[in-house]
């Protein structure tokens, strides 16, 4: 018992093990025929420690949003396990899930579609309190005012409707709603990508302040690498339904180990014209392959500038640790880093 | 309109008052904006006059006894022209008073359209909600039923049902209710499938809301506006079809109903007795026109595609 209690703090808050989420493609007029799957997430594993921020990046369609939504069981996992603080999320019945959702919340990308236009802000933010029987009436009014204050909105906002607010303010309302249940984990699905750049910084700072104040753990999904670097402790890079690299934020930016990460980073402009001119950029050719029929072997081989014959096309690289502590899913990371392999046109 | 308030716990009184005030203000805003368009205003005014006429029919002309919906007959004045003493708009070939038919016909029309529209809206919204909100097999099943209904022209379908049930005004109401609900089912289903994709529905799931509450508070209120537009248009349409059915004799003889009057007067038109069919026909025309103008005006203001201009 004592041992278990002692081991408790080191246990990650969230563990995702070999998660697969497939969306079936059906066809047929009378009888539904199952003709394939969109393999949105195809074997993803990661852990998030208490109080940590894990950034999840990748281009559109790589499955990062699906991962976030599946953790909250907005989508049902096809395979794999999601363990939140020792509880298997996938096996919960609706009542258990409801209880657990007090501890896991979400901030959505689009501040316009995430608030019901027919409810006033007070009801939007106070709703979770009512549903879980935490507060109602005057109590609720007081708690809502507190929550609005925490996210930097005036208490008078409670009486107003979403359309009276700007995008940044709406995102704050959404944040207040997710904070109302005092959760442990917040899945933030591109919470700033719909906002003006000037507002993005405010929102990021707010998220950081709240993390300290309320001891929050974030899964921060984004495609903007600069934003992710600023807020994340560790970063996972996704490509076509799989994680290709996990590293601490600094490590990932200073010495990326996967060719895809390198390509992503080289797409970020550097605000120094001399370096910008001198540096060697890796520009990816072609489009993201279809997740219905992903490439054989390494999924990135169709676009990889370091692709080697045989092995890359036939053997799916597992996520393996490098000496520096990164996890990477590439057969040739060491060779690429040491300069033994040089980039070439991916089509042989 | 359905809202989530009152289902769980109590909302602060101040918010409830504000919410009510906002709803009232929004409704008056919509009406004011609609009535900026002169044709909508004209439609609204005609609707107002016709509805008032229907409501105050007993004050305008004393109700016939024992059945107020039957025209009083004066066998001493058959086919009397307009202006005849005691019969301002003349009489029918059976001695029925045309003015009585016109005024009490408005009451019959209001009765018909209100009953039919409320029944069809309730059934249509229920079926459309089940199909759209639950999706999957429910959707396939219910929408195939809707397709079957839609495949039969509505007038023919209503005619067949009313004729089978026998000539009575109540049967016309029933027939129209059976035919008209499918449109609402389709509209509501489409709207719900669209609204369901909004993040606020997922947000409600994440905060632990039940499906029923999500439907009542997030999905239905945001899906209902096209239904209100369609209901307004149908208030006119139902009377038009209802008059058609009673014109071909599917209502009780002598009923104070416009279609019935047109039917009684049509044979006399060639002989110069124009008044029986003309006044009643004009009423049907006015009624249908007025609700169409009003419905179109509301659509311009409420349609989600034109919202937020």
Structure characterization notes:
The complex is a heterodimer of chains A (348) and B (309). Chain A is of the alpha/beta class and 348 residues long. Chain A has one domain (11-103, 183-338): 3-Layer(aba) Sandwich (Rossmann fold), CATH 3.40.50. Chain A is 33% helix and 22% strand. Chain A is built from 13 helices and twelve strands. Chain A has helices spanning 2-7, 64-71, 94-100, 121-131, 137-150, 167-179, 197-214, 225-231, 249-254, 259-266, 273-278, 311-314, 333-338; strands at residues 14-27, 33-48, 53-57, 79-84, 87-88, 104-107, 185-189, 217-222, 234-239, 242-248, 320-321, 327-328. In chain A, strand 1 (14-27) and strand 2 (33-48) form a beta hairpin. Chain A starts with a helix and ends in a 10-residue tail after the last helix. Chain B has 309 residues and is mostly helical. Chain B has a single domain (46-71, 89-302), classed as MetI-like fold (Orthogonal Bundle), CATH 1.10.3720. In chain B, 69% of the residues lie in helices and 0% in strands. Chain B has helices at residues 13-35, 38-55, 57-60, 98-134, 136-150, 154-165, 169-195, 199-206, 211-219, 225-247, 258-266, 275-302. The longest helix of chain B has 37 residues, at 98-134. Chain A binds chain B through residues 69, 72, 74, 98, 101-102, 104-106, 108-110, 113-120, 122-123, 126-128, 130-133, 136-138, 140-141, 158-159, 161, 174, 177-178, 180-181, and chain B through 3-5, 8-12, 14-15, 18-19, 22, 198-200, 202-209, 213, 217-218, 221-222.
